[in-house]
Amino acid sequence: MNIESILEGCLKHDRKAQYALYQEFAPKMLSVCRRYCNSQEEAEDIMMEGFMKVFQKLDLYQKRNDCSFYSWIKSIMVNLSIDYLRAHRRQYEMEMSMDLGTMEDVAGEIVTSLDANQILKMMDEMPEKQRLVFNLREVEGYEFEEITAITEEPINTVRVHLFRARQWLQKRIKEEEKRHG
Question: S-S: 146 plus which of 18, 24, 124, 142, CB 3.0-4.6 Å?
């Protein structure tokens, strides 16, 4: 069954087509949600909510048809994950006394001998706002202006979160490599 016929079946509320769509995209979408959540259970909940939204709004995708289905469903999962984070955000204020000029020194790829699962586990421990900005910028490829709109934070705050996330991750990777290395 190809994706077009699966989508047609889903539009007709065919349970087999819905199951086929779920089977096709659930692993990838769970991975997307997992990057934003502290636990597997939260990611699964968000993903399930996302699939319900996909099935409810599928006719809107059919009318748009200006992007791939994968991009459309992924954007739903990312947005729901961000909404979840906003709703459960810790209420605290951070002081920003960092010199933004030094941020470029830490920019660049983080090269490591650790595998992706080890890095994802480390990222689970990263402070929430830093993890969100890091995911949006480095994993999803969003521009700073888009991230400021999503997070409702000033651009310099977003840059600081990204800088600190990169620093934090580099430090953790070095520690882990020393421990196992």
Answer: 142
**Torsion sign (Cα): 137, 127, 153, 43:** positive
Residue 31 burial by CB count (10 A; 0-12/13-18/19+): exposed, middle or buried?
A: middle
**Structural contact between residues 78 and 36, judged by C-beta atoms closer than 8 angstroms:** yes
| Residue 167: its H or E element | helix 155-180
Q: Note the pLDDT tens digit of each residue in 92-138.
A: 233 333 333 333 344 344 545 566 677 777 888 888 889 989 989 98
Domain count, the chain: 2
Rounded CA gap, 147 and 70, in Å?
Answer: 21
Number of Cβ atoms within 10 Å of the Cβ of 111: 7
Q: Is residue 132 part of a domain?
A: yes
Domain final position from 44, 61, 87: 87
* Distance of alpha carbon 18 from alpha carbon 31, whole angstroms: 20
Query: What distance, in Å, lies between the first and last C-alpha atoms of the chain?
Result: 47
CA 130/CA 159 separation, integer angstroms: 10
